[in-house]
TrEMBL record:
Name by which UniProt lists this protein: Dihydroxyacetone kinase
Keyword Ubl conjugation: no
Listed GO CC annotations: cytosol
Annotated keywords: Kinase, Transferase
Pfam families xref list: Dak2
Organism: Sorangium cellulosum (Polyangium cellulosum)
Superkingdom: Bacteria
Record keyword Ligase present: no
Gene3D superfamilies the UniProt entry points to: 1.25.40.340
Entry EC no(s): 2.7.1.29
GO terms, biological process: glycerol catabolic process
Record-annotated DhaL domain positions: 7-224
UniProt xrefs under SUPFAM superfamilies: DhaL-like
Length: 228
């Protein structure tokens, strides 16, 4: 795969809708422990709405497509996570405006813009036990993959890099998904400082954050689409 085209993004969103529908109860159980038991339902509703509207969306401009998805999520997910996921996709879309496809550098920049938007809107920092704790490490992994010297220059065997010896987009996305998984799992011992879970104070420790977990599922779906 070269870059992430509008068709690939659409394939990702379809896969994400399937995954979130399948994992709806899991996410809702996580939210039952430290929130109000709706995160899985919220996310499945939002991405089902995105899937229903995908056919009518222009895929020629990846930025415009991501922005539209942000608007749909904003109006359908609800809860605290709706505006935050809406912001993530909207800000990523604004950064990618006019792009026919995204290479690794563009995707890293786009997701970083989304992360910055989420942090601005939700005022969460790393370690606050939110989706930022999965998204942040994923963005870091993409940026690190981008900066990694070509395998040949580092005296390593070429795979899993692209033809030019640099880390391929698919490999970088696999690493980003893995970083998000580790980030989501690392929220377990944390005490929540933002959102509904923060009302529990110390009692929020010992549970995995639902939003960080859905963020990981989205990135795992993206990596699987890039690899397909
Ligand atoms: P609600 O908490 O309103 O019921 P959801 O259950 O859909 O909304 O989403 C909860 C998730 O939203 C949390 O697990 C957390 O990851 C994320 N979240 C909540 N508040 C913030 C915030 N201020 N910044 C970033 N993420 C947040
Ligand atoms: Mg909730």
């Amino acid at each position: 795969m070269q870059g992430l085209s509008g068709d690939r993004v659409a394939a990702w969103l379809e896969r994400a809708a399937d995954v979130l529908e399948r994992e709806k109860m899991y996410l809702t159980e996580l939210d039952a422990a430290i929130g109000d038991s709706d995160h899985g339902i919220n996310m499945a509703r939002g991405f089902t709405a995105v899937r229903a509207r995908l056919g009518g969306l222009d895929r020629g401009d990846v930025g415009a497509l991501l922005k539209e998805v942000g608007m749909i999520l904003l109006s359908t997910v609800g809860g605290a996570s709706g505006p935050l996921y809406g912001t993530l996709f909207r800000e990523a879309g604004l950064r990618a405006a006019g792009a026919g496809e995204l290479d690794l550098a563009a995707l890293a920049s786009c997701l970083e813009a989304g992360l910055d938007g989420v942090k601005r809107r939700g005022k969460a920092s790393p370690g606050d036990k939110t989706m930022v704790d999965a998204l942040g490490p994923a963005v870091d992994a993409l940026k690190a993959a981008l900066l990694e010297p070509p395998a040949a220059a580092a005296g390593q065997a070429p795979p899993p890099s692209g033809a030019d010896g640099r880390v391929s987009l698919a490999e970088a996305l696999a690493r980003a998904a893995e970083a998000a998984r580790a980030g989501a799992e690392a929220t377990v011992p944390l005490v929540a400082r933002k959102g509904r879970a923060s009302y529990l104070g110390e009692r929020s420790a010992g549970h995995q954050d639902p939003g960080a977990t859905s963020c990981w599922l989205l990135l795992r779906s993206l990596a699987a689409t890039a690899d397909a």
